[in-house]
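HOLO CASE FILE
Compound: adenosine-5'-diphosphate
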Amino acid sequence: MKVFLDLKWFFLQEKKSYLSGTILLLLVAFLQLIPPKIVGFVVDSIKERSLTTDDLVNWILILITTALTMYGLRFVWRIMIFGSATKLSRILRNELYHHFTKMSPAFYQKRRVGDLMAHATNDLQAIQQTAGVGVLTLVDSLSTGGFVVLAMAFTISWKLTLIALIPMPFMAVLTSYYGTLLHKRFHHAQEAFSALNDKTQESVTGIKVLKTFGQEKEEIESFRVQSEEVVQKNMSVARVDSLFDPTISIIVGISFFLSIVFGSRFVISGEMTIGELISFTTYLGLLIWPMLAFGWLFNIVERGRASYERVSALLNEQVDIHDDPDALDQAPSGDIEYHIDSYSYPGEEVQALLDIHLTIKEGQTVGIVGKTGAGKTTLLRLLLREFEGYKGEVRFGGEIVQRYKLRCLRESIGYVPQDHFLFSATIGENIAFSNPLSSTEEIEMAAKLAHVHDDISRFPKGYETVVGERGVSLSGGQKQRISIARALLLKPEVLILDDSLSAVDAKTEESILSSLKQNREGKTTMITSHRLSAIQHADLIVVLEDGRIIESGNHLQLMKKKGWYKEMYLRQQLEELVEHGG
Ligand code: ADP
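Model generated. Tokens follow.
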């Protein structure tokens, strides 16, 4: 029941609804006591032959009024308690989403997407159930159960009540044992569900790769196994779950048996009337629901507790990259300086960057090149503060990047990552994502600069064309150029193209870069590319290898050095010549 304490903050926040809902529940529990009593009176008056038509009509009127009142009250408390409970999942969902948006890439590297989705769906639903049905079953089973037992003991026979209650302690022991079992099994079932979620997400996203390699059969099989696992885990929950009802029925059955055996003896000995015995057994019948509800309560609360623990653990995870309390509220501009002695990714031993000392003057175009895995992207991500924990510092406009508010820092930088992402929205909306208030002219201007305007205009719906999930209906090159347009719309101080033109042909790449050069006069541009021709006009070219700078200078200087750059440049020129049949 600890979860109710954990949720105290919410119950206090919604105290009006919960308090009124609970009072109404108590009232209904009390009203339920009336009908069995009336039935008892009527039976006794029939037996004594004293029942008049007027009496009978009166009793029936009272029964109808009670039933209608309970109907109305039940409707109102449901709205109050269940309605409030939906607010809880809304609050937690918003909190989770807010938390997700604050977390750094290191967090997403650790967590599986399917897992995070399971938290935001299944877990929140289980918590909502605790605050709704959980509270209902707790209050209702205690109040109905309590009132009925009191009515049996004080208005009929305390002796028969004690006899009828003999089997009850067994029920308490058994249900609490089942509850513990359920907690463990439910935890496993939720984990299996998370894994299945992850698998589904991955299969759907990777469907193209899957088909290309003809791996459908294997994938279907591995999906089947995972899905079977979820079924098995849920079956093991269901097996414990289904023990509750029969156990309760047997125990209540024993109670009935004892009541009838001893009750009829009391009637014969004159201690009780036959009407009272009927009222008593009807009350006993009323006890079945609270007992069942108590069983469910364990189930619901156990699920809620497991889910709340998982969600809280997630929410309590510290945001590792955040603003300093006195961070500068201004977008940086100026020179960029790297002084990094070393950097390794969290949990990795190998150094991704080593001895990087590099100054990029404001307005320069810098090309960063090197083999795959040389550290190019890492260098860019440190400027963006996606990862921290390096030895050294990165300065922007004379201040270390940590001095600026994250929002301001990122406002200054237009980053086009390698793994570009388009949302399921129109092309126009995708471009305007960086600045939703942009005018149509601004959006088109950015698209023209990224050399994608003509492609978009050829679509029947133009900028209104809806991009399928992850941009399925667009070519790789079109997606890349739309992502570039998105960054350009920001008119950033620093534009970063991280291998963002890999799917575009060499000629288009050159046109894009030369129009960028004209348009971004005085602003800094950082480009990583495998095609050296793309960066040959850069003011500064940096060659990385195993996280170190091995060469730097402009094209002419590097060509004189006879190093990696020259060798690679000549080889690529030759390849191009061969490609064009030279
Ligand atoms: P490049 O952009 O030059 O291809 P990266 O900067 O992506 O190279 O990678 C540099 C090194 O850091 C590589 O050895 C790579 O395996 C490693 N690395 C990159 N990203 C991560 C990450 N998120 N976690 C751990 N290691 C990483």
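CASE NOTES: The chain is about 65% helix and 10% strand. The domain at 336-579 is CATH 3.40.50.300 (Rossmann fold).
CLOSED: yes
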